[in-house]
């Protein structure tokens, strides 16, 4: 297991690009999928909660005591050929192409992580889920840790564009992946095909339905303010 004292730059950049998109999709999934007593059948690729059943795949698991992340493909109970793992192998392939060790190391040591997320495994699950797209991810707790399942089911809705929560999503995303806030915003806007223009310390946005917004950044690239001017049609 490599001795890591932080995430790799390639992982941080990818996380920054995906963070706001993933957080918005997580909120959409939470509204759709009740978080009640649940059951999962990974061979059948199903997760059921509150009378709703969705198709899932296995990203990996986080062991609380060891503070490590174990990929599904590296877990001896599963492996590459398991029905719940095979759909996730694109993550490992991307890791090889882009040089992201967190995506290619079978078991990732996260004992160093002391950030705002509950644990470092949450951030790996976020980035992995963002790579796959789909409908979000689920942290399914068990004695000793959590398994992370990716939801890939057409009945689970995609997140819709809404300008109101954008500054909140951006601030929350940047708290988790702080290195490139302008990239975080740009990818969220691009996800919804919202037109924007980047200038010196500002991203100018033309809001669908009417109105404009400006995201302001300081000299270090940190997000500092959001100014929106919504027309009645854009409210």
Please, could you describe this protein's structure?
- With 235 residues, the protein is α+β, with helices and mostly antiparallel strands.
- Helix content is 31%, strand content 27%.
- It has 6 helices and 11 strands.
- It has helices at residues 9-32, 89-98, 101-104, 120-132, 166-176, 181-191, and strands at residues 38-41, 46-49, 52-63, 68-71, 107-109, 137-142, 145-151, 195-199, 202-206, 212-217, 223-229.
- The strands form 2 sheets. Strands 1, 2, 3, 4, 5, 6 and 7 form a 7-stranded antiparallel beta sheet that branches. Strands 8-9-10-11 form a 4-stranded antiparallel beta sheet, covered by helices on one side.
- α1 (9-32) crosses α4 and α1 (9-32) packs across α6.
- The longest helix is centred in the N-terminal third of the chain and has 24 residues, at 9-32.
- It starts with 8 loop residues before the first helix and ends in a 6-residue tail after the last strand.
- InterPro entries: DUF6882.
- It holds the Pfam family DUF6882.
